[in-house]
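Hey all, sorry for the wall of text incoming. These are the two entities for the joint prediction.
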Amino acid sequence: MSVPEELYYTAEHEWVAIADSTARVGITDYAQRALGDVVYVSAPAPGTRVTAGDPCGEVESTKSVSDIYCPADGEVTEINSEVDDDPGLVNSDPYGAGWLFKIRLDSDDQIPPGLLSAAEYTAMIADEEQ
Amino acid sequence: MPDPQSAALKRTPLAAVHESLGAAMTDFAGWQMPLRYRSETAEHNAVRTSAGLFDLSHMGELRVTGDDAGEALNYALVSNIAAVRQGRAKYTMIVGADGGVIDDLIVYHLAENDYLVVANASNTAVVVAELTERASGYAATVTDRTDDYALIAIQGPESPGILAKLTDPDLVTRMKYYAGYPALVVGHEVLLARTGYTGEDGFEIFADPDDAPEIWAGLSEAGHDAGLVPAGLAARDSLRLEAGMPLYGNELSRDITPFDAGLGRLVKLDSGSDFVGRAALAERAPQAASRVLVGLVGLTRRVPRHGYPVLWEGVRSGTVTSGGHSPTLGQPIAMAYLSADAAAQAGQARGRDDDQGSSGAGLAIDIRGSAEPAAIVRLPFYSRGARD
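and here's what came out:
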């Protein structure tokens, strides 16, 4: 189970890469394994205002549907059109080509509050597996 | 994810094999079963294009034996079982006195006065109880033999060729669909049947649990070059949905008669012989159906799922019984019970339009609060040979 050191995480299994006040968001390797093959992703449209902790999209897999929870306050700037064409990228490359959308962060603080470090997230999923 | 109850789950004779293959396991009807090995979509596609190998050892197996075994089954089930010749099988149902479906079954006529009844795992106990009671007036004995059988299915266009390497090839060539008889597979005595639940050609192998790992290994090896892969319950469900096959608990239940499910042809009302549920079904048969089982294709990409409402011109007119993304069609598909009125109107609207229904204008599936357009299509969604 891959949990890259340089990313931040939510308790709902999103990952967040932060650079230049922009957050790139996806779902974790753990999440994609639990979901099974992803068949459709509904991400918030560019321009949408999003609030940390609110559901802002859906990931549909063969067996279930899961909400995507927004990891930070801000405005959606871009969605990954390649995932729209090939949702399987979420399974094959969850931290790379399978990213879902980008948010321009409201705060200039580098790290939005409430996110988990890789170590914290690793501990959390270890607990869930118990 | 393991939970405290997992210790109570039954394991199949192939549990160690699944573990070594790294399968994601799931609790299904009290059994720990493989959900998928790698990608369920790849497993699905393998069955459509080459072959897949399934462990179905959770299915219930009952033997009905004795001088009156055929007559007892004729009374207990809706179909004319006594007319099933030795070596052949029949898809049928057991219903309550009110005509509601208790389970759907496959009955194999193994030998004179000897039948094998295959029940769904979730219903095995109730089928054993009902058959035992219904057979009590006959010279027939009902025995639950579930633990005496492993059940391995090989399904897909390559399955006859793969199997022919491991048994008498003439047997494979000769065996008709819905036939089943004793055979040697990988040197083990089994009941070999040409049956399945995927919409493809394929075989089901009822084996001694001790022999199951060797048979599984033999099939895996013989099928490797043809592209055979192990396949889990997730692929099994998407395959049977594309093939328009009902699943108990979804399309079939105690509240549904065989006629509601479009399977009235299974019911032997004209034979004159009595069976449990006959009076209720005889009354039901000539009535116009108030609801019909239909196939739906979603015209957007959101996926309909079990229990979602179906809307006709904005009014709730039915319920999705099974839904999912179809790997073969690349579209969302569903089966649903729809009121006969709505189904007729949607069908007419579709008839007026070109191919891909503007019937979508009136027909929709309520997917978590959003009315997503859908169209009625003829079942099954997929039938083999219809590709290209």
